[in-house]
Amino acid sequence: MTMKYQTEFLERIERTPASMSYRFKVPEGLHFIAGQYMLVDLGNELVHPLTISSCPEETAFIEFTKRMTGSPYCRRLESLEKGETISVKGPSGKFYCDDSNETLVLIAGGIGITPIRSILTSLEKKKERLCPVILIYGNLNREDIAFRDELENLKLTDYRLVHVLSNTAGMENAYQGFITADIISKEVPKESNVQYMISGPPVMVEAIKKSLAAINVTEDQIRTDMFLGYD
Ligand SMILES: Cc1cc2nc3c(=O)[nH]c(=O)nc-3n(C[C@H](O)[C@H](O)[C@H](O)COP(=O)(O)OP(=O)(O)OC[C@H]3O[C@@H](n4cnc5c(N)ncnc54)[C@H](O)[C@@H]3O)c2cc1C
To answer: Which residues line ligand 1 (CB under 6 A)?
Structure first.
């Protein structure tokens, strides 16, 4: 059964010029798995599904990170005052990783990083994942990379972050362009069993699925999280 909770707004944190995190008190009784989302209801029919970008092991707050588009929903988020109460419903979603010994390849486009940030931070805090983890993270330019410092400094046993940017100025080690089959082939070891998780706007997720099919990755190796509402 989906549960509804009231929660209190704590603080906002700017992640990039176009994305903002919003932290709330953890509602009593809420349990979630890293990678899940909630329906965040700001009143007056302003309701959107937003992924919980914090992880279950971060117990001081739950956090949602929104790409700011100037929509009525975003304007309402911007107007939230400390201590104000909103409703959240959930958690929902099956975009989480199984305990397994497979190589985990996470592919994020822009704000699609939110469930992946939660999953990776959770793995770091649990110190359980010993097999390789590769994050391939696509953005327009350096300034658009949400959670960059944190993701670059994650302490996992075998972890690599591959940046793919449309404009690589200031990021000489990044690939230039979009995430392609060629980049994935170069970065993912051929011999290993691989679980892929893709998150981002629908167009991006579909494009990556096609790229994976082109390099013979089967559907059962892929999990996706589509951020409906973005082109
Ligand atoms: C499972 C899930 C998790 C998501 N997690 C995040 C997240 O962590 N961060 C984030 O920034 N965004 C996330 N989104 C997208 C978010 O819910 C909004 O749809 C998106 O942010 C656009 O809202 P807006 O307020 O910017 O623009 P709006 O003007 O409200 O929406 C833009 C356009 O998209 C349409 N639309 C809006 N929401 C939906 C929807 N759910 N389904 C179909 N059409 C829709 C609107 O009718 C409008 O035409 C997620 C979406 C899903 C489905």
So the answer is: 37, 48-51, 65-67, 69, 71, 73-74, 93, 111, 114, 227-230
Does residue 231 lie in a domain region?
A: no
Task: Specify the ligand 1 atom closest to the Cα of 19.
Answer: 11
State residue 131's pLDDT score.
Answer: 84
Whole-model pTM: value is 0.95
Residues 133-159 pLDDT 10s: 999 999 999 999 999 999 999 999 899
Position in ligand 1 atom list of the atom nearest CA 92 = 1
SS3 letters across 23-57: EECCCCCCCCCCCCEEEEECCCCCEEEEEECCCCC
> How many structural domains are present in the chain?
2
Residues pairing with 199 in the sheet: 108, 225
